């Protein structure tokens, strides 16, 4: 895992990768468009990060993520959802700690750092060790205090197996399965203060949950911390496919979280739409689709 982050004097990505991008652009939509990119992967030439534009700065994304082949500006992947989350945080808190559960490469953490002057520290959790290398490099760019914790977040402490349903080159869809011999560490948010020497009790918390089916388990595993917090804002992904895999419904998930601490829920990309967890959620937003919700706990 050495020398995978380009230095300031190094190009954004290697010469051969530039050729692969040009090759893809010329053949886009035709047979063979991925040939050179796939060849570089087989030759282990993609095991490093590229430096891409991200809003007013840059972000490091591993070249083996397929989107790097045709996207130059990764801020195009982000809509207004993080802006609305940041707005809600700024309305509620003068200062806060961000718990980024399922941090991936740190994209959301970077946006909150840029948009929220009250951020005092970020704790980013991710079960994928490679993701943690890139998220560490990205959070260093923010200039804010942070800790990257290589662990999944759930309602137990122990080990699990990390499942890649779409392959290891698509890490954002990976999820954990609890196993006796699992080599992926799992933590409860309630244990973070002791295990990682963090002072969180009584502080305002912004909790982002994108943990591929462990959302409710993560909240249950942090219910004491959540109950004792000064205030809580949630940012949670609702994924129809993941809900079906785990046997949950969106409304049952929001109801269960609200039982720990009463919470008002809003659609992240349409924050004027207040959601009623007592009724099916997807009909309220007009369609069954992947979406994010913002929760404000009283």
From TrEMBL:
Protein name as catalogued: FkbM family methyltransferase
InterPro entries: FkbM_mtfrase, SAM-dependent_MTase, SAM-dependent_MTases_sf
Domain called Methyltransferase FkbM: residue spans: 100-239
Record keywords: Methyltransferase, Transferase
Protein's UniProt keywords contain Methyltransferase: yes
Coiled coil segments of this chain: none
Source taxonomy: Bacteria, Pseudomonadati, Pseudomonadota, Gammaproteobacteria, Cellvibrionales
Protein's GO biological process: methylation
GO molecular function, one term: methyltransferase activity
Species the sequence originates in: Candidatus Marimicrobium litorale
UniProt key word Kinase: no
């Amino acid at each position: 895992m050495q020398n995978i982050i380009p230095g300031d004097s190094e190009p954004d990505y290697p010469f051969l990768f530039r050729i692969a991008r040009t090759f893809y652009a010329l053949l886009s939509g035709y047979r063979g468009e991925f040939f050179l990119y796939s060849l570089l992967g087989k030759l282990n030439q993609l095991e490093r990060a590229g430096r891409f534009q991200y809003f007013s700065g840059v972000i490091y994304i591993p070249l083996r993520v397929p989107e790097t082949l045709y996207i130059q500006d990764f801020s195009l992947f982000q809509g207004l959802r993080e802006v609305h989350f940041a707005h809600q945080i700024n309305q509620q808190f003068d200062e806060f700690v961000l718990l980024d559960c399922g941090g991936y490469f740190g994209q959301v953490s970077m946006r909150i750092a840029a948009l929220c002057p009250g951020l005092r520290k970020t704790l980013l959790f991710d079960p994928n060790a490679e993701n943690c290398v890139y998220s560490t490099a990205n959070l260093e760019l923010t200039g804010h205090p942070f800790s990257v914790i290589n662990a999944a977040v759930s309602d137990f402490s122990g080990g699990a197996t990390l499942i890649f349903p779409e392959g290891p080159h698509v890490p954002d869809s990976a999820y954990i399965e609890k196993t006796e011999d699992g080599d992926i560490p799992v933590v409860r948010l309630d244990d973070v203060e002791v295990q990682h020497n963090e002072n969180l009790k009584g502080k305002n918390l912004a909790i982002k949950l994108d943990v591929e089916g462990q959302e409710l388990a993560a909240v249950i595993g942090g219910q004491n911390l959540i109950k004792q917090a000064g205030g809580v804002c949630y940012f949670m992904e609702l994924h129809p496919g993941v809900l079906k895999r785990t046997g949950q419904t969106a409304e049952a998930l929001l109801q269960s979280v609200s039982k720990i601490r009463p919470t008002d829920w809003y659609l992240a990309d349409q924050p004027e739409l207040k959601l009623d967890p007592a009724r099916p959620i997807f009909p309220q937003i007009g369609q069954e689709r992947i979406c994010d919700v913002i929760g404000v706990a009283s």
